[in-house]
Specification:
Blueprint (H helix, E strand, L loop, with lengths): L6 H6 L17 E5 L3 E4 L2 E3 L3 E5 L20 E5 L4 H14 L4 E6 L4 E6 L6 E7 L3 E2 L9 E2 H4 L8
Parallel strand pairs: 5-6
Antiparallel strand pairs: 1-4, 2-3, 4-5, 6-7, 7-8, 9-10
């Protein structure tokens, strides 16, 4: 089963980080983009389902306006598609080579979230969670979010 939904639904769950004004206490603000061509290394272009850049590193949108985007994201998230191998093998290698610090995988079939943290020898699983669970997942630890919300299975809290 592949949920027919936009990656933006998952990014919306991280809404408190999308502006400096609404950033949680201790938060830094982020820029988010869905399905944007991003050049990780010369000639290696990927389209993360969602990518995020810390505003303390990229203070304005200007560097993110080109196509492809030439600034390495600080976080990427893939919503697994029927082409799981590309998300779980190929893109993981590309993100690791580019030193993307955080890589999330949302699996609509298994209804899970797996959070990866970059390390020299490969990504380390920092957190795994399933539906019904609430997490403080890096790099967004200040906010609490449910896996159901990330997967688009639950409405936004009021």
């Amino acid at each position: 089963m592949f949920l027919d939904r936009s990656p933006c639904d998952s990014a919306a769950a991280l809404g408190p980080f999308d502006s400096d004004e609404r950033s949680p206490p201790g938060g830094i603000g982020w820029w988010f983009a869905a399905d944007v061509a991003t050049e990780l290394t010369p000639g290696r272009i990927v389209r993360p389902d969602i990518a995020g850049w810390r505003r303390d590193r990229v203070p304005t949108l200007a560097p993110l306006g080109g196509r492809p985007v030439l600034v390495i994201p600080d976080w990427t998230c893939e919503l697994l598609s029927p082409n799981r191998r590309h998300d779980l093998v190929t893109k993981v290698r590309f993100y690791h080579e580019a030193r993307v610090p955080h890589y999330w995988v949302l699996d609509p079939d298994d209804r899970t979230l797996v959070v990866h943290r970059w390390s020299e020898h490969g990504y380390v699983i920092a957190l795994t969670a399933g539906t019904g669970e609430t997490v403080h997942a890096e790099p967004f630890e200040p906010i609490e979010v449910t896996v159901d919300r990330l997967l688009g299975l639950a409405p936004a809290p009021r």
